[in-house]
Write a structure and sequence with these properties.
The protein has helices spanning about 55-65, 70, 100-115, 140-150, and strands at about 10-20, 35-40, 80-85, 120-125, 165-169. By secondary structure, it is of the alpha/beta class. The longest helix has 15 residues, at about 100-115.
């Protein structure tokens, strides 16, 4: 962590939609401000609640890429982007998300990040999938992702919609 040049607040953010992230990790904290962590349901919290740290792992991979080589050399990485996280998956003890609501949950998550920092450029990254659907037919969720990417979810008189870059597994 001491060898890294960390990004400023004005840097592009990768907004990871997952199960939260451990902001206390020394390789995440300098690029993940407390106000840049949200939860679709505030009761879920913003800390990584996955038993194996899936959200933190995704955040770290999004921020640093594969650390195998940098951990074994004396390089001084310069990061050009920072992190945002939005918890979209409920922790244990809460009911699972209804697949019929995945689109609304995803749209809400993107809105939370945009409300917090409306002028920040961001890339939305989600490594969450719907295991119960084969992907052969479109879903409300895929339609919501299309609307978010095209920017047509926003109310505007302008026909040139501001588009978003979404990375979906």
């Amino acid at each position: 962590a001491d060898r890294i040049t960390w990004p400023g607040q004005e840097a592009v953010a990768v907004c990871v939609l997952d199960c939260g992230a451990n902001r206390g990790h020394p390789l995440l904290e300098p690029a993940l401000a407390a106000e840049d962590q949200q939860a679709v349901n505030a009761a879920w919290g913003v800390d990584d609640h996955h038993p194996r740290g899936h959200g933190s792992g995704m955040a770290g991979l999004s921020l640093h890429g594969d650390l195998t080589v940098p951990l074994g050399d004396a390089s001084q990485p310069v990061l050009t982007h920072r992190l945002e996280t939005v918890t979209i998956m409920p922790p244990a003890g809460f009911p699972a998300n209804d697949p019929a609501n995945y689109g609304a949950i995803t749209s809400s998550a993107v809105s939370l990040a945009e409300i917090e920092k409306p002028d920040r450029p961001r890339i939305v990254c989600m490594a969450v999938t719907n295991e119960d659907r084969p992907g052969v037919r479109p879903t409300q969720w895929s339609a919501s992702l299309d609307k978010l990417a095209a920017g047509v979810d926003r109310i505007s008189d302008d026909q040139d919609h501001e588009r978003r870059l979404l990375i979906q597994s």
